[in-house]
Design brief:
Layout: H1 2-17, E1 24-26, H2 28-37, E2 42-45, H3 49-54, E3 62-63, H4 78-85, E4 92-95, H5 101-111, E5 117-120
Parallel strand pairs: 1-5, 2-3, 2-4, 4-5
Length: about 150
């Protein structure tokens, strides 16, 4: 339990430093470690169906679009999908492509009554490198964490 507490405290400090409205900011590796060790923890992937199908999926993650594809409009069913698929008492971690949409999703989940929300920094694909390509600097895949092609 000591390592879990340590990860949560670091994540909470990051969130305070960034003035986030949710519990914490996790690196992909920290997220994977928490997910594996914390009973009932859920990872919510808020990328689009196209991203899941064409870029890759995280085995066992709850998939709830934040924006819909095509068009990029906000998913009007996000709140309903969250309440149907994720226990409000669970430790909930949100991931997207680069860690931006997941910030908004974690903040919204807090508004919906989820009390233990965390964002995954760097997201699934990480930031763009000097050549504008993802998956080379940061992110879930670059960290070598479990995923499979859509």
């Amino acid at each position: 339990m000591g390592r879990l507490r340590e990860i949560l405290e670091i994540a909470q400090t990051r969130a305070r430093d960034l003035e986030r409205p949710y519990a914490g900011e996790l690196t992909p590796r920290e997220c994977a470690e928490l997910w594996a060790a914390a009973p009932g923890a859920r990872l919510v992937d808020v990328r689009t169906r196209a991203e899941w199908d064409w870029v890759g999926r995280i085995p066992g993650a709850v998939e709830i679009e934040w924006n819909q594809y095509p068009g990029g409009v906000r998913n009007p069913h996000f709140a309903v999908d969250m309440h149907r698929q994720v226990d409000p008492e669970a430790l909930v971690m949100f991931i997207c492509r680069s860690g931006v949409r997941s910030i908004a999703a974690a903040a919204m989940a807090c508004e919906l009554g989820y009390t233990n929300c965390y964002n995954v920094l760097e997201g699934f694909e990480g930031d763009r490198d000097a050549n504008g390509q993802r998956n080379k600097v940061g992110g879930w895949r670059h960290a070598g964490l479990p995923w499979h092609q859509g």
